[in-house]
Amino acid sequence: MRKYTLLVVLAVAFVVALTPGVAMANFSVHGGYTMDTDACAGCHRAHTAASSITWLKTDLTTGSALLNSTASEIYEFCYTCHDAVSLGADTNVETGIYEGTDYGTQFADLNGGGFDSGIFTAQHMYTGSSWFAYGGGITPDLLGNLSDNSAPQIVMSCSSCHDVHGSSNYRLLKDVVAGRTVGGYNSAAPYTEQDPQPLPWVISAEPGYPTMGWLLHEPGASQVSTYTPDYTTPMYAKAPGNDPEKGMGGWCAACHVNYMQFTGAVYTTGVDPFDDWGSHVASETLGYDSLDGWGAAVRHRHPVNVPLTNYLGARSLIITTNPLPLAHDDTADAATQDDTDWIDCLTCHVAHGSSAVMTGYADVADSTDPQPDSGTGGIPPTGDNALLRLNNRGVCENCHNK
Questions:
Q1: Cα 398 to Cα 402: distance, rounded to the nearest angstrom
Q2: Going edge to edge, which strands form the sheet with 296-297?
Q3: 19-35 tens-digit pLDDT
Q4: pTM across the whole model
Q5: CA count, 13 A, side-chain hemisphere, 89
């Protein structure tokens, strides 16, 4: 159910509302185009576009996105449908609420959270500027020191992570992020005569989800008519082929490249872990400054894309009350937690924005001398909650039962 106040561009929302088909990822205006499609007109005007938004070409020059809008930033254009007040999508990512009834619980929180700064204390989007990604691959600064804030800057907006035209991955997650391949298509091994074989890195355990990935040039509804997304109940899946270097962890590592590396291993200029993951061995002792007060130190990391069975102790880590979402084998397994499920990025974090509160030892000014509630919201990323699902470090207690 949508509210009826139109913002930004009345024409765009009106056209999208009239577009036939099921309005969800890889359907309707987001993918599955045919030769006689009318979906292009929902967002673009070939000769009269007013928006100043551009796109980056393969030769690194920019061109007009030809958007039917006066928006100057891509999030403004996406909010034509996905904000809190406009006619359009039921997935209100501005305030993190699902407003429909067919694909989740009405008015429940979206799986990915939301972006509204008045509600969420951290947002995975920065409008009008750019960020460095924590663990994002470090380069020497002017003094030759390795530092997280010397990593390449990333302009964070909706299109940094999502391909609005469709991708092989879950929820339109891009096949190439920050110049690194994290999904795609293999034309040498066609799935059908017309469509290349999808090679997704991220899939879902939702009922009917095509775990082989999404085909190009074929409407989603005709590819899998039984697919039922759930925007309010997490149903994450392991990586295709149970490849621990892929999945959600591998996808996020396109920007946060060091977070999938061995302890002590560091991605530096000229050594890309996506070229050869095995080149980073556990004996490496490279340190870097993550701006936490400890300087250039060797960094240790929580395992990602690993089953719970690896860490069974006096008590099982399988939680039955207030469980964190895990990555499952398939649809049948998605409703339960077992020792073969994976811990991945989305077990502890949400993708868009979190309202978790950081207090006590989670809110300190100096991590080398932690005094409760002495800081401004948390150890780096300073001033926010690291997009955690639970207050403070409740995600740790949820599994470790201390």
A1: 9
A2: 139-140, 146-147, 288-289, 296-297
A3: 333 456 666 688 777 77
A4: 0.88
A5: 25
